[in-house]
Structure formats: C-alpha cells, structure tokens
Amino acid sequence: MNLDLSFWKTVAIFAGISFVPILGWIYFFQKQNFEKKKYVIITFIAGMMSIIPIKLYEKYWDISVWELEHLNLFKYLDNVAGTQTVSAVLAFVTVSILVSSAIFLFSAFIMSLLEIISRDNSAKVFSQKFLKISESPFLFVTIGAFIGTCTALLALYFPEKVWFFVVVGMLEEFAKYLMLRFADENKIGSVSDAISFAILIALGFAFVENVVYISRFWHEGNQNFAGFSAFFLLRSTISVIAHVCFSAIIGYFYGIAHFSDEIYQEESRENKHPVLKFIHKVFHLKSAPLFHEEKLLEGLLLAMIIHAIFNSLLEFELVIWVIPFLIGIFLYILNLLHRRDNHIRRGHIPHHIS
To answer: Which DSSP string corresponds to 61-119?
Structure first.
C-alpha cells in the first residue's frame, strides 16, 4: 500500500474516494430537492468554499504573511494570553470581531462570483441580499464578543493548542451560517427548506475538510491499510454526521427566523416573549424584527457552543463520549423537528417545500 504518489495526485484520488460517501449523504438528505438541482449544486459548492477562510486562519494566524508581521494582530495575543485583565479580554474580542468581519466579506465575495457566474442571481439582486444580511443588528459585534470572551477564558486555563482548536470549531459554524444566508436567503419556502440547505452547506464543508485531513494523514506516513481505512471510515461517518447535526440546528432556527412575523404574532398573544415586549416599550424597537434576530443568533450560538464541546472532547481524547454526545444532539434535533411540525399544524409556517 506504500505508493509513491505526488501530493496533488494523492489529493485528487482522495477527493474522488471521499466524494462517494458524500454523494450518499446528499441523496439521503436531498431526495425531496432533486427538482432543484441547480440550487443543490450551488449550495454544496458554497459549503465547499466556506472552509477556505477557516484553513487560511489556521495556517496564518500565528505567523507573518509576507513581511507584514506588524499587521498580524494575532501575534500580539501571545502577550496577553492567560492574563486576568479586562484589557486582555478586550484584545481577544477586538481580534475576534475583525476575524468575523473578514469571514463575512470573504463569504460575500465568493458567493457574489458564484451566483453571477451561475446566473442564479444578478449583481443587483446580490447587492440587495448583501445589505440585508450586513444590516443584521450586532451580528459581528455579538459573534466577535462571544468568541473573544470564550477564547480569553480558555486561554487562562488551557494551552494554545486547546483553545485554538475549540475556537476554530466556532468559526466554522459562523462561516457555514454566512454561506447559507448568502446562498439561499431568497429561496427558503419552508423551515424544511432551511434545514435542507443548511445540511448541504455542511456536506460541502465536510467534503473538503475530509480531503484535507485524509491527505494529511496519508502524507504523515500513516499508509497502513487497516489504520488508513479506519481513519477514512471515521472521517466519512462521525465527522460528517457531526457537521450535519450542527448545521441542522442552524437551519431550523434560520427557518424559524424566516417566518418570524407569523410565529411571533401568535406567540406574543400567548405572552411567551415578555423580554422582547419590555425592550420594545423601553427602546421603542419593533418586537418582530428583534424576534427574528434573536432566532438567528440563537441557532448560530447554539451550534457554535455544541461544536466547541465536540472539539473539546476530541482534543482531550474523550472519544468514548463522542457517540453519546452526538446521540444527544440527534435527539435534540428530533425535538426541533417536532416543534416545526407543531408550527405547521398551527398554520404559523408553510408545509410545502418550494
């Protein structure tokens, strides 16, 4: 099994092999969307593209790019990591806001090219979508503050390798969330649509990630057939299922946010959102848009936290807990689907797949 293959030839072979189980997953999750082949392909490619800023972040975050060493703000975090001061937390938050903003701009650039080239949307339509997404209140500030605070706290107690690995998982969810919104903001006809497209993003992301890790595993000298086969099987199942679960959560809340007006009106009559009503009275902000943003952030932050826990289990070699953890997440997703069905029965959201 010790074949003398060039790096890129090996990558191409592993890409072909890795794509086989991904096709199976696509068929399993997208059977109801086969009439939307164009949307399915564009969304899957969007998921593939969403991994690019994450891998760039992993590669260059702690080294100088070209000769611009003084512009790499991450190098300055070494001086404050583990410091119990407000300024240290603010440093991590500031850098995290910049990173989340950069991922947003990258996602917008890639999707604008993809949609215009595929003629899925015109430049004018995409610019309108860009403004709608970028106007989400506190999107980058909230995400940056959340990730930065978590990073600062983790840096107090864990080495760089641990907290960096956990934070990368959180950024992965943010990148997939942005690609989902840019790819399918105008195509959601139901909550099921949103979940379906979110899973497609996850499959595209998982495909490229699997190719990267499998190729790296091979080139590190792990060319024993049994060991390589076991690694390939784990990447093609556990890793893919994890990404699908994380993105399904984002998709559910994204779909709920998409139909937030109908849901909020019904639930407000049942006095289910006293906090939003209080904010509306004090700050004169419309409650329905707040409910919309709340659901978007709820899904995103929940997926980020779950992904961070999953990465922590892997980093601390608590592999025995990974399967029970994923089973728990799967049961939670079933509960979300039950809630979706309740909304459909009450007429809050459409049932059809547009």
So the answer is: TTS-STT-GGG-THHHHTTTTT--SHHHHHHHHHHHHHHHHHHHHHHHHHHHHHHHHHT
Nearest of 250, 231, 232, 234 to residue 307 by alpha carbon: 250
Per the CB < 8 A criterion, the answer to whether 162 and 311 are in contact is: no
Question: Cα(270)–Cα(274) distance, rounded to whole angstroms?
Answer: 10
Tokens of 268: 């407000």
Q: Is the pTM of this model over 0.90?
A: no
Hey, CA dihedral for 283, 286, 288, 293, is it positive or negative? negative
Query: What is residue 135's three-state secondary structure?
Result: coil
Terminal-residue alpha carbon distance, the chain? 48
Tell me: the pLDDT tens digits for 240-291? Answer: 999 999 999 999 999 888 877 666 666 555 555 455 444 444 444 445 566 7
Tokens of 122: 């015109």
Residue type, 71: L
